[in-house]
Write a structure and sequence with these properties.
The relative contact order is 0.15. This protein has two domains: about 45 residues; about 110 residues, Thiol Ester Dehydrase, Chain A. Helix 2 crosses helix 3. It has three helices and five strands, in the order ααβαββββ. It has about 180 residues and is α+β, with helices and mostly antiparallel strands.
Amino acid sequence: MPSLSAGLGQAGQSGMRVGQVTDSEKVSRRRHGSVRHGVFFHLLLFLMSSLDEKISRAETRIFKAVFPNTTNHYDTLFGGTTLHMMDEVAFITATRFSRLKMVTVSSDKVDFTHPIPGGTLVELIGRVARVGNTSLQVRVELFVEQMYSEERIMAVSGLFTFVAIDDQKRPVSILGHA
């Protein structure tokens, strides 16, 4: 019949207590633990850099001219037209990032800080700001430029939230697909 110490490995043979670890085992565990940690760390860095690259590629820039048919009685761009253009750029950005069907679920904190006069150019820039499981947020900034000078100023900014959906209009994972 085998002795009890035979099943205990080094602890039963050397007089060590059960559960006590030798110095060589500690070194081995440190090495393997740091290897696992290192692999996890590099995988995390890869995923983060991959996500950063994907976010960078999804950036969307669109230019438009502000014509009289889009201005109000003050000869400035209608607020509703501005929101329409911003939501469109945000949608394109969200779709380019996820390559999934996306729907707008909210627009938050849209700040109109400068009027947008008729006869100017606007540049809308959409950037992914946050990625969740089924949703993502896109920050849109609208810059107004004078047509015949280098003057440029940020006039409007806002945050738009989108949810990825399937054919039955149910939320689906963005990162699981990405």
